[in-house]
């Protein structure tokens, strides 16, 4: 009788675990990641460049480009890969003036898409361009300010500024440089920076203020950390000295995010404010962090897989008939005023929102 009971218990446990795993693989047609990803990726290909003040490629475009390419590779969509290459090709010639200068954390992350394209095509032009952006993030210019030189003297990027955005902007290009070259200096740089930012910016509850002097948990700001940590952990060697600290920061944040998820699966513009509006870019970033954590076994599937599924299913309902993600908070500088965050404009089709949706779609497609 005892053996039968244990056998039944094991079978129930297996079925339960299988059901949790399936919750991130089985979706209705309209919510299937391959369908959603295709809609958004082809929409991106057809769009115009998003520029900083009409001058340089914006980081939000690079984020979306990365997501579209990840989706194309996962689905082996050769047509889409070619279209993404074709979109980049003029940047070697007539659109070269649109290339961001290599003098700011938001500009240097452009190198990540060049390095991703190199991994797909093996075209050396992409590698040369991408590594230049990765390397100049640590090469101190002659006209660097004293505080920039001080960061470099401590082994950090001279572009360090302790804004939470940086933990995607810095890590994404350094990670890709590591993947292309195998040179550990790139992954070591990213890990060292991440530990600094965690030690300086993460609150005891695992979340992050928009800035030290702005005590509000803005969703998209926190989202850059939520994405940067698992992306770094995916590539960081298991025996790397900084891995335990980064994993601790990631798990602490995920626990807090789970507690603040709204009943419909979304997260609000300010994470801990129940009367604020559901915001899609932050929700997409947090969902991506959950998906990767469940897939890698860092997060308990029984707890986090249903949360990720619920978020994804609701996220899809925010895509309009033009394949634009709606309810995306516009670009937002810090301000010590809660009403300011509540009243921020909401855009449809803003690439800050299109990007994390593509990251989620690609992640849900598995390896």
UniProtKB/TrEMBL annotation:
InterPro entries per UniProt: 6-hairpin_glycosidase_sf, 6hp_glycosidase-like_sf, Glyco_hydro_88, PolySaccharide_Degr_Enz
Gene Ontology annotations of biological process type: carbohydrate metabolic process
Molecular function GO labels: hydrolase activity
Keywords, comma-separated and alphabetical: Hydrolase, Signal
Coiled-coil features, chain-numbered ranges: none
Pfam family, one: Glyco_hydro_88
Lineage top rank: taxon: Bacteria
Signal peptide segment: 1-19
Binding site for substrate: 165
PANTHER family for this protein: UNSATURATED RHAMNOGALACTURONAN HYDROLASE (EUROFUNG) (PTHR33886:SF8)
Name of this chain's protein: Rhamnogalacturonyl hydrolase YesR
Species this chain originates from: Chitinophaga rupis
């Amino acid at each position: 009788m005892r053996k039968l009971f244990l056998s039944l218990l094991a079978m129930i446990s297996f079925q339960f675990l299988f059901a949790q795993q399936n919750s991130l693989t089985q979706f209705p047609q309209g919510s299937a990641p391959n369908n959603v990803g295709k809609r958004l990726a082809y929409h991106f290909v057809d769009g115009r460049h998003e520029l900083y003040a009409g001058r340089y490629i914006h980081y939000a475009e690079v984020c979306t480009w990365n997501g579209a390419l990840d989706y194309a590779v996962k689905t082996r969509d050769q047509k889409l890969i070619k279209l993404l290459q074709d979109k980049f090709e003029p940047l070697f010639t007539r659109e070269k003036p649109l290339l961001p200068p290599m003098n700011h954390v938001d500009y240097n992350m452009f190198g990540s898409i060049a390095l991703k394209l190199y991994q797909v095509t093996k075209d050396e032009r992409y590698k040369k361009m991408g590594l230049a952006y990765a390397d100049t993030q640590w090469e101190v210019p002659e006209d660097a300010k004293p505080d920039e030189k001080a960061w470099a003297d401590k082994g950090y990027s001279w572009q360090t500024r302790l804004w939470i955005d940086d933990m995607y902007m810095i890590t994404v290009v350094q990670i890709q440089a590591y993947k292309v070259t195998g040179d550990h200096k790139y992954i070591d740089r990213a890990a060292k920076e991440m530990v600094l930012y965690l030690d300086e910016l993460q609150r005891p509850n695992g979340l992050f203020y928009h800035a030290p002097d702005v005590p509000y948990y803005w969703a998209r700001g926190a989202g850059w950390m939520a994405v940067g940590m698992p992306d770094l952990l995916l590539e960081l060697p298991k025996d790397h000295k900084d891995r335990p600290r980064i994993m601790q920061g990631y798990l602490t944040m995920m626990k807090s995010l789970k507690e603040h998820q709204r009943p419909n699966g979304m997260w609000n513009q300010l994470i801990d404010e129940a009367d604020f509006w559901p915001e899609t870019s932050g929700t997409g970033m947090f969902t991506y962090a959950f998906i990767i954590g469940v897939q890698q076994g860092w997060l308990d599937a029984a707890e986090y897989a249903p949360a990720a599924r619920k978020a994804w299913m609701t996220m899809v309902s925010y895509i309009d008939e033009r394949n634009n993600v709606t309810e995306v908070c516009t670009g937002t500088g810090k301000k010590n005023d809660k009403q300011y965050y509540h009243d921020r404009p909401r855009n449809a089709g803003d690439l800050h929102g299109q990007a994390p949706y593509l990251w989620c779609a690609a992640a849900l497609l598995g390896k």
